């Protein structure tokens, strides 16, 4: 058996599988409801200006939320391993995603004539903003937390592999004036659930 075949067998043996079923809505043709093998469900929709009913997040918004959730989950895993390996490393308690902005060229999805290739790629081209972590990590550990999280997060890895330019700065929350962020205060005022 050669190395390539062994790698493939090993990859298949360690592959995590995700399955779902989904269906568009008969009344709202721009909406899709999906049920995963875990029993969780989610729905996507399009804005009114794109022919949807704006009753759920757009698919790209779901991708960005998946990036945030996957980044947080992966960072917590990395933090636990850092703490196990290095007793001076704290356990990640909280992450905040601040002013995260993603851009894409709409011509990639909407350009006409439809029988011709679009003049731009439809993927997300840039993702930028700040991730704030609590408690504080020393500079070396914060850099390691960021690097290992970005390498190990499946969604971040997929975005990077697509060519998306990731420009997300990670900072310590204790560097901010107040542990409770502007985002958290505004979210509470607008009755957005925590």
TrEMBL record:
Coiled-coil features, chain-numbered ranges: none
Gene3D superfamilies membership: 3.30.300.20
Signal peptide location: none
InterPro entries the record matches: KH_dom-like_a/b (IPR015946), OsmC/Ohr_fam (IPR003718), OsmC/Ohr_hydroprdx_reductase (IPR052924), OsmC/Ohrsf (IPR036102)
Pfam families: OsmC (PF02566)
Domain of life: Eukaryota
Protein's UniProt name: OsmC-like protein
Natural source organism: Fistulifera solaris (Oleaginous diatom)
Lineage of the species this protein comes from: Eukaryota, Sar, Stramenopiles, Ochrophyta, Bacillariophyta
